[in-house]
Known about the structure:
mainly alpha, Growth Hormone, Chain: A, globular
Amino acid sequence: MKxxxxxxxxxxIFILFGAGILSAFQVGKxxxxxxxxxxDLAISLFYAGWVLxxxxxxxxxxxxxxxxxxxxIGHRRLMLTGLVFQIIGCFLGSFxxxxxxxxxxxLLEGAGFLAVIVSTPTLIFQVVKPKDMAVALSIWTCYLPxxxxxxxxxxxFILSVTDWKGLWQINGVILIAYTFLLSKKTSHIKFMNKSxxxxxxxxxxxxxxxxxxxxxxxxxxxxVTYALQWxxxxxxxxxxxxxxxxxxxxxxxxxxxxxxxVNIFGNLVGGRCLKKxxxxxxxxxxxxxxxxxxxxxxxxxxxxxxxxxxGCLIFSIFGGLIPASILGGVPDYAPSxxxxxxxxxxxxxxxxxxxxxxxxxxxxxxxxxxSWSCGSWFLGSxxxxxxxxxxxxxxxxxxxxPGNSS
Length: 406
């Protein structure tokens, strides 16, 4: 007979999951209004790409370091601080009348996003029962597609009563309310590393130890290739279908939301496959192959919406196997239990690096060639690199749980 102590606190886990979803709102709110931002601020497609990707600049440089800070000062404290940063960024962005002002606010939002997504998985790791670990972590990996797609679905209704600046303010208000709720509901979670003294030397040692371990390093590099492809496709999908097929902004937002939403199914299936014992590297290798192949359908030179959009759906569904496999592997490949957030930070740093590079590179190539078809060989090449890195990962044994799928 199962006792109360044997059950995972799923209510609390889903509240923590909500922090990821609301943080992902700040990703999903931009693509559908990118054309409005370009018009208001009089910027080119290339500069618009930076509005998408500057969000990830903090993670590019501080991802691993942020994970080490979370391990040192407390994951709950850093998570709540991250939400506050996003609140400030939302309101500053809503009052920005210049390209550089908006970039600065997006950078602040990105720092808050980074703090949340680095620290929250470890809080879930603390409260969930071992038997539910794989399921809980696979649910967590859905935070980005769930939050971004929900924001895109809500956008047509929000934009019917306000503009993109009002959208920023609405996000700020929602974040304020949720921060108070989260603070109350997580107040009982104890600091995992009470004996750890917070020194710069200790943080550097943790970062060096984790980043020089083969498992975390390869997981992070694979995530670079995934995130680069995913944001490049998702971020410019509304722009591409509006320009190429003349769709309305609302329809483009809905279609993009659907493309992002189906990524959730890949995340959940990935979690179940890992639980059934399928090797982690095999799932990632399969996903890399499908993503690279589908990019040729997405950016086909033929004016065929069904082909382009079907390619997007396949790309997103099977791509979802990667975050489930990579993020779910953090507890296994971390050098020690006390370095789980630092390991997660390396992976997030990889993801942020990929997202930072993807949109500007794709925008530059499209601007130079005058066609979206260049995206096929660009993303196909990145997917191939991810496949090679995955084959390298297959030769690395997990550190903490050698009996798990690797």
